[in-house]
């Protein structure tokens, strides 16, 4: 062993590097506050909740899509050991109907079942297995009826509901009905039924209160609406019902089915005990609303240069058994039926009808996604017939700010459609795969799945999409927020539910930017707070973010006024940067902490966008607050013998108004694009004769990380919308709307086949006679 001199350094002598400053304010990639808890598995989801004396609930659902209920016998279930309550329609003390948009759905079916999986009864027991066995022991005698499953038959069928089969009809008329073009193309298109398929199935806990009310712990995305519905159903006042929002495991639709929530509270009120219900995956598929299956017929007129002259279309939405939000979905479909193109003459007729299929409702991009697939197919047909490049014909007709939509509304927001399309068109194409065994995984189907490499064809296609932000047709969009500051810590109280869209992160950034305070907490959401509305269509970025900003600015004024008065200047001459308050002339310089000096400041503010109006009898009106646009170029490889499709790359350009959180924004776009891949290729909830087949995640094929293509965000246009807080736009829905149309366009380019149905079936991509 050799002698060595070992030098040690004490901790006191070790130079300590200065800590890196934390991300701060708007425009930076501030990490999500709940990221750690979610990755560590400690995030408080509803399925994890527990209470002393807990009972378990189960729901009996109809095995038939259409039947008359002859009798319901609950005696066997009530006599089972461990069963505490069995309830049916006779046990609903208040309003027996509910529904997101139109309250036309019974809490429990009483005389007729109108869809597969409709609730008949619910049970509370001391063990989940006991509850399920007791639910199965409820004897229901049915007179099975022939279901109406074709929406076209719904017009002539006997009424399926007291309100009739027609939910809404919109006959849009814009321009000259006699206008014609030199070139005419027609097409018929079908969009299948897609499910939001939340990874975390529905769960909830109901706890009775001493005042005779009940508290519901749910992953609700619209707690105040759900509270109002529950109170009406239970025959209670609003003050007696409270909803506490638990951790939401992501939402691309209305996260919680009200038909799931309502029996839970009824059981808690009847038993006087806490009651928990965790839905199985099958129950989740049977219970919540799906994307509207849609039949579309189109006729496009264009001149010899490819300029659009007139668009005629018929759009039929299958609403399923109940209306839900079908009226709003139809308005979006009809309004955007021509896409982000200048169309001087448009005649669009749309219907939403009831059938005995599973209910349809709000799913991200509703209405807009279905018509995008159809009008982009029509643009491809025009390009082929005229011998014009598909991107070029789209450029010639691209919508811009100042143009008029077919509903007669002038586009006043930024609409850089041509700029977006040019960006994806000019982006370099991906390299072709090598025809070697080691690169077989690049071919459609993956290893062992592809046919001969010589059967693979590459296609390039385009999609242009648009969506509306916030509600439409006169919806009162409003949100309220409170900002409190005490001991150098800011707290935000706002009932905007964090569904994965990043609102809590945005709220922290807004307060940091406005007040210069690093530590910002966002309080949990419950219905004791003022309402903020549902978490969809970018609402919370706009109205809830706007409310937080206004409240923070009011607190800022409270903070700065004493200093401004002391130095004889207005608060506008003071600025807050990195936690320091300085004046324009440098005379005043202090920290926010020193200025607070232990004071507690708070303010409450509202944000309400400018009003809109319903569409009139001709489908005309200023129906939308704002619009967002997206362009996508899809590159696909298709095995024309097997019909298998591999999405190689999706190049995305989007107008975002203003980038508030770069990492969060990119993640939302990539997620939306990937969701669109599923809609284009795999997601199809099959319902033969109205029965949901394979209601599980093996029968319903969601895209996984292995199915996600290369997603290239090639351009983000930051042209601020002057009427929106921060100028930002919704970013999640429009890539969902656009990517299925772009993928279908690319498959058409590769195969020469029409591809008029989504998801794309293998037989639609097979080319014979090669």
TrEMBL record:
SMART domains: Ald_Xan_dh_C (SM01008). InterPro entries: Ald_Oxase/Xan_DH_a/b (IPR000674), Ald_Oxase/Xan_DH_a/b_sf (IPR036856), Ald_Oxase/xanthine_DH-like (IPR016208), AldOxase/xan_DH_MoCoBD1 (IPR008274), AldOxase/xan_DH_MoCoBD2 (IPR046867), AldOxase/xan_DH_Mopterin-bd_sf (IPR037165). It comes from Streptomyces fuscichromogenes. Pfam families: Ald_Xan_dh_C, MoCoBD_1, MoCoBD_2. This is Oxidoreductase. Transmembrane segments: none annotated. GO terms for molecular function: iron ion binding; oxidoreductase activity. Residues 40-146 form the Aldehyde oxidase/xanthine dehydrogenase a/b hammerhead domain. Coiled coil: none annotated. Residues 1-22 are annotated as: Disordered. Residues 1-15 have a biased composition (Low complexity). The lineage of its organism: Bacteria, Bacillati, Actinomycetota, Actinomycetes, Kitasatosporales. It comes from the Bacteria.
């Amino acid at each position: 062993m050799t002698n060595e001199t070992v030098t040690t350094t004490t901790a006191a002598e070790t130079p300590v590097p200065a800590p890196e400053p934390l991300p701060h304010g708007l425009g930076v990639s501030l990490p999500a506050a709940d990221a750690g808890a979610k990755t560590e598995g400690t995030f408080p989801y509803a399925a994890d909740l527990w209470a002393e004396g807990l009972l378990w609930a189960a729901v009996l659902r109809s095995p038939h899509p259409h039947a008359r209920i002859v009798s319901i016998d609950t005696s066997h279930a009530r006599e089972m050991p461990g069963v505490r309550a069995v309830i049916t329609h006779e046990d609903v003390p208040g309003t027996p109907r509910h529904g997101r948009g139109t309250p036309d759905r019974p809490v429990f079916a009483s005389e007729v079942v109108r869809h597969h999986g409709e609730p008949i009864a619910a049970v509370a027991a001391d063990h989940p297995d006991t509850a399920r066995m007791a639910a199965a022991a409820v004897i229901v005698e049915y007179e099975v009826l022939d279901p109406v499953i074709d929406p076209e038959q719904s017009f002539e069928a006997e009424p399926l509901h007291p309100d009739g089969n027609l939910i809404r009809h919109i006959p849009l008329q814009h321009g000259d009905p006699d206008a014609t073009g030199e070139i005419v193309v027609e097409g018929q298109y079908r969009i299948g039924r897609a499910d939001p398929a939340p990874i975390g199935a529905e769960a909830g806990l109901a706890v009775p209160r001493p005042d005779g009310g009940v508290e519901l712990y749910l992953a609700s995305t619209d707690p105040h609406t759900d509270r109002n519905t529950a109170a009406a159903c239970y025959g209670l006042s609003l003050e007696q019902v409270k909803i506490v929002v638990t951790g939401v495991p992501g939402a691309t639709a209305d996260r919680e089915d009200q038909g799931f929530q309502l029996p839970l509270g009824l059981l808690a009120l009847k038993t006087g005990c806490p009651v928990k219900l965790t839905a199985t995956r099958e129950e989740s598929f049977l219970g919540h609303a799906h994307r509207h299956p849609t039949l579309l017929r189109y006729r496009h007129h264009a001149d010899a240069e490819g300029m659009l002259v007139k668009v005629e279309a018929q759009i039929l939405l299958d609403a399923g058994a109940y209306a839900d939000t079908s009226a709003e979905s139809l308005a979006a479909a009809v309004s955007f039926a021509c896409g982000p193109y200048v169309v001087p003459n448009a005649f669009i007729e749309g219907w939403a009808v009831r059938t005995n299929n599973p209910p349809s409702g709000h799913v991200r991009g509703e209405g807009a996604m279905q018509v995008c697939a159809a009008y982009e197919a029509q643009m491809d047909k025009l390009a082929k017939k005229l011998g014009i490049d598909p991107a070029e014909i789209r450029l010639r007709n691209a919508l811009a700010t100042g143009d008029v939509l077919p509903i007669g509304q002038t586009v006043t927001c930024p609409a850089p459609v041509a700029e977006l399309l040019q960006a994806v068109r000019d982006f370099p194409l991906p390299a072709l795969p090598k025809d070697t065994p080691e690169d077989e995984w690049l071919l459609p189907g993956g290893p062992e799945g592809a046919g001969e490499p010589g059967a693979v064809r590459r296609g390039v296609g385009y999609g242009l999409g648009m969506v509306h932000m916030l509600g439409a047709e006169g919806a009162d969009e409003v949100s309220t927020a409170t900002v409190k500051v005490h001991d150098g810590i800011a707290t935000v109280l706002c009932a905007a539910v964090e569904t994965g869209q990043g609102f809590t992160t945005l709220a922290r950034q807004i307060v940091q930017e406005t007040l210069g305070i690093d530590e910002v907490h966002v309080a949990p959401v419950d219905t004791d707070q003022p309402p903020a509305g549902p978490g969809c269509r970018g609402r919370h970025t706009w109205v809830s973010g706007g409310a937080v900003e206004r409240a923070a600015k009011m607190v800022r004024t409270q903070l700065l006024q004493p200093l401004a008065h002391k130095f004889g200047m207005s608060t506008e001459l003071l600025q807050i940067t990195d936690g320091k308050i300085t004046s324009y002339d440098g005379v005043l310089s202090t920290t926010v902490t020193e200025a607070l000096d232990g004071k507690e400041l708070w303010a409450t503010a509202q944000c309400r966008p400018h009003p809109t109006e319903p569409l009139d009898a001709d489908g005309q009106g200023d129906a939308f607050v704002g619009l967002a646009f997206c362009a996508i170029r899809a590159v696909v490889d298709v095995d024309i013998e097997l019909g298998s499709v591999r999405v190689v790359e999706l190049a995305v350009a989007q107008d975002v108004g203003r980038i508030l959180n770069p990492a969060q924004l990119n993640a939302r776009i990539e997620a939306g694009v990937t969701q669109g891949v599923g809609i284009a290729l795999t997601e199809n909830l099959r319902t033969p004769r109205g029965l949901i087949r394979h209601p599980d995640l093996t029968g319903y094929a969601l895209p996984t990380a292995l199915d996600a293509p290369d997603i290239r965000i090639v351009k983000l246009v930051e042209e601020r919308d002057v009427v929106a807080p921060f100028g930002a736009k919704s970013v999640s829905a429009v890539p969902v709307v656009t990517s299925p149309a772009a993928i279908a366009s690319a498959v058409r380019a590769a195969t020469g086949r029409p591809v008029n149905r989504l998801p794309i079936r293998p037989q639609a991509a097979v080319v014979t006679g090669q």
